[in-house]
Specification:
Blueprint lengths: L3 E4 L2 E4 H11 L7 H39 L6 H10 L19 H4 L5 E5 L3 H8 L3 E3 H6 L15 H18 L4 H4 L7 E5 L2 E6 L2 E7 L13 E7 L3 E5 L9 H16 L3 E6 L2 E6 L4 E3 L2 E3 L4 E5 L6 E6 L5 E3 H17 L13 E5 L4 H19 L6 E7 L2 H5 L1 H7 L4 E6 L1 H11 L16 H16 L7 E4 L8 H7 L2 H4 L4 E4 L2 H13 L2 H8 L7 H5 L11 H25 L4 E4 L5 E4 L1 H16 L5 H18 L17 H11 L10 H13 L3
Parallel strand pairs: 3-9, 3-21, 9-14, 14-17, 17-18, 18-19, 19-20, 20-21
Antiparallel strand pairs: 1-2, 2-15, 4-8, 5-6, 6-7, 7-8, 10-11, 12-13, 15-16, 22-23
Helix pairs in contact: 1-9, 2-11, 9-10, 10-11, 11-13, 14-22, 21-22, 21-23, 21-24, 21-25, 22-24, 23-24, 24-25
């Protein structure tokens, strides 16, 4: 049981109270007593409304479940749409409007480029991501499969190096024709600055630095003395307190907030062992080219949790846990004040804004709730209205179906929308759980609703005036080792009119930056602006497998694939508190996994089980088979706890099984309630 301190009627975990009063509040001009009174007032006002919104979710889902049970299968589009409107699932569309956020940084409003998402609890990863504003094209090409073959030998491979230089020069030729003249001291239309050893260009808003050093081991063999090419890469990074971390108690929350504060103060550091040598990381400084100074770091957003979960870090007056999303809104914004007041070594937002991504909201009422909550937080912290900017994750079906109304509710502070295929698919399955069995997971990307979802997001954003004011984003490339495939496929995101898209690593950000030189996103947005929004009925079509009888081999293969993904992720979440990592899939390909991937896999298995596609015995057999495989994949991890043979005592295995067998009953198919419950049991030693 955590030690607690009473603060304005709230019972606050002592570790959180100390952090706020001794680290987060000093320097902000906000007195502790006033802060706690204001926080208590916010909880008194918003906690009941938060609970009511969750009750609305459950009530709508119950109505939809009953409707599908009465008439299973693919519904008649007109009747289905009328039903959803009758129960309040579909809201009235707003009239034409334009968003009007003010004081938005160029990285968000007027530039197009890659976006990283990084778990807040890993300081090393945080710093790598923040510093990924600039990346070496030579390094990104040399060490990945972006080029055919692999380097030979333990040292530098000259043949691979020549291959890298040829590809990099081809990029310069395509992007900056006759660039050599500038390197030799002449002029070029895209040349904007020189500095000792550096020639700086700008193209499509992004900077390219040619590093000239004839004494460098690479530069001495280059006819122009070029040692490297640096690309401006991750313009923005989302520091994640949500799907990519395991934060289940006050201790975890404080660790997350400490790292966010370290970024805002500029003093976050990380030390780690690499090959027997102690290495260090800290935030990079700005880059100077004569009189020109450019940001050396990615502009940072912070992703709060959604409206669902509560936290034991604060107990309300009635003894119940406080809504976690409200705590995140208050604390991450408070920490952002350090940046606004110029209290840190560097500035994050030069325009004077705090950027918060709000995930997993269902419909315009929940978006309006978030807007009112941020109003109240601004009042608590003494901030001008709409200082806090919001990124809206379009990852729940009711938000997708009412996207214009959701944007309208946030129109004065919204700076970001994006699509998230995995969470969105999880909600697609859960919402229509009782309509019938779903198509296999791998077939989802080819279904009608997903194309409508992706296209509607861009076109609704453009109609609301996002171009030049806010980001339109696309989802994650989940395979960090498959950079060649990423280069071939992810250009589709800027071509679709998205001004940013998620990548899994700084290296991926550098390579994805190439796409924004190939595609002028804002020109593409102008071309798309007049196109019609795809019909709502396409979005509402359900990915059912009507009349499909799978063979036992097909069923077993699908179950194994899902079970392996669930177990591979859950075992690290429960046993080690790792919320995001590169997890080998069933074919031993490393994929970046977080709770979104877990949601779709567990919901898919629950759906097939509900509709008799598979049996309880078949699901249990798949889980046991895949426990052995996951154990083998983690054999080299000294912290790993085997599941196979320990199914009755392994909390990780039990959590994975519960996610499937209790999946139908989970709120909106979310995995957090069960994950938090099992992780707390492990931390408290109550297995």
């Amino acid at each position: 049981m955590a030690d607690r301190i009473e603060k304005a009627g709230l019972r606050v975990a002592a570790t959180l109270a100390r952090f706020l009063e001794e680290e987060a509040l000093p320097g902000t001009g906000i007195e502790a007593d006033a802060f706690w009174r204001g926080a208590a007032d916010i909880y008194a006002r918003f906690a009941p409304e938060n609970r009511a919104l969750l009750e609305t979710r459950d009530a709508l889902q119950a109505r939809i479940d009953s409707w599908h049970e009465a008439q299973p299968g693919q519904p008649d589009p007109v009747a289905y749409r009328e039903f959803l409107r009758e129960i309040g699932y579909l809201a009235d569309e707003p009239g034409p409007f334009t968003i009007d956020p003010e004081n938005v940084d160029d990285e968000v409003a007027r530039l197009a480029g890659p976006q990283l998402v990084v778990p807040v609890l890993n300081a090393r990863f945080l710093l790598n991501a923040a510093n990924a504003r600039w990346g070496s094209l030579y390094d990104a090409l040399y060490g990945t499969d972006a080029l055919p073959g692999t380097p030979r030998g333990p040292g530098y491979d000259p043949e691979r190096g020549a291959q890298v230089v040829a590809r990099a020069r081809a990029f310069l030729d395509e992007t900056l024709p006759r660039w050599e003249a500038a390197v030799e001291g002449g002029e070029h239309p895209a040349l904007i600055a020189r500095a000792p050893g550096a020639v700086l260009f700008r193209h499509n808003g992004l900077h390219i630095e040619i590093v000239v050093d004839p004494a460098h081991p690479i530069g001495r063999d280059d006819p122009l003395g070029i040692a490297d090419i640096l690309l401006e890469a991750a313009l923005t990074t989302i520091v994640d307190l949500e799907d990519s971390i395991a934060a289940v108690d006050a201790e975890d929350k404080v660790a997350a907030y400490c790292n966010w504060l370290g970024l805002m103060k500029g003093d976050l550091e990380a030390r780690f062992d690499k090959g027997g040598t102690t290495m260090g990381r800290s935030l990079a400084g700005d880059r100077t080219y004569g009189d020109l100074t450019l940001p050396g770091r990615s502009l940072l957003f912070v992703r709060n949790v959604g409206h669902l979960m509560t936290t034991p870090a604060i107990l309300l007056a009635d003894g119940s846990e406080a809504p976690e999303g409200i705590l995140d809104a208050i604390v991450t914004s408070l920490i952002g004040v350090h940046d606004l007041r110029g209290l840190g070594r560097f500035r994050n937002s030069r325009a004077g804004s705090i950027y918060i991504v709000k995930p997993k909201m269902h419909g315009p009422d929940e978006a309006a709730f978030a807007n009112a909550l941020f109003d109240a937080v601004e009042d608590l912290l003494g901030l001008a209205r709409y200082t806090i900017k919001v990124g809206l994750m379009d990852e729940e079906r009711r938000t997708s179906a009412n996207l214009a109304a959701c944007i309208h509710a946030l129109r004065h502070r919204i700076v970001f929308i994006n699509t998230g295929f995995l969470d969105r698919t999880g909600d697609e399955i859960h919402t229509s759980m009782r309509a019938g069995p779903m198509i296999p997971k791998a077939k989802m990307k080819g279904s009608a609703w997903i194309k409508a979802y992706e296209d509607r997001n861009v076109r609704i954003g453009l109609a609301a005036g996002f171009s030049g004011k806010a980001q339109i984003g696309k989802g994650m490339w989940a395979a960090p080792d498959l950079m060649g495939d990423m280069l071939a496929q992810k250009i589709a995101h800027p071509e679709a009119g998205a001004s940013t898209a998620w990548v899994p690593s700084p290296t991926a950000a550098t390579l994805h930056a190439l796409h924004y030189h190939q595609v002028d996103v804002f020109e593409r947005q102008r071309a798309l602006a007049g196109e019609a929004v795809p019909p709502l009925d396409d979005l509402l079509s359900i990915p059912l497998a009507i009349g499909r009888n799978w063979s036992s081999e097909e069923i077993s293969r699908e179950l194994d694939n899902n079970a392996q993904g669930i177990l591979g992720y859950v075992v690290r979440w429960i046993d080690q508190g790792v919320g995001c990592s590169k997890v080998p899939d069933i074919h031993d390909v490393g994929l970046m996994e977080d709770r979104a991937t877990l949601r779709i896999s567990s919901q898919h298995m629950a759906n097939w089980l509900l509709h008799g596609v598979c049996t309880v015995e078949e699901v249990d057999a798949a889980l046991r088979r895949m426990a052995a495989k996951v154990d083998a994949q983690n054999a080299g991890d000294p912290l790993y706890r085997p599941m196979s043979g320990n199914e009755e005592t392994s909390l990780a295995f039990q959590a994975a099984r519960a996610l499937v067998f209790e999946g139908v009953a989970q709120p909106n198919g979310y995995t957090e309630p069960l994950l938090h419950s099992f992780r707390r049991r492990l931390k408290e030693g109550t297995a």
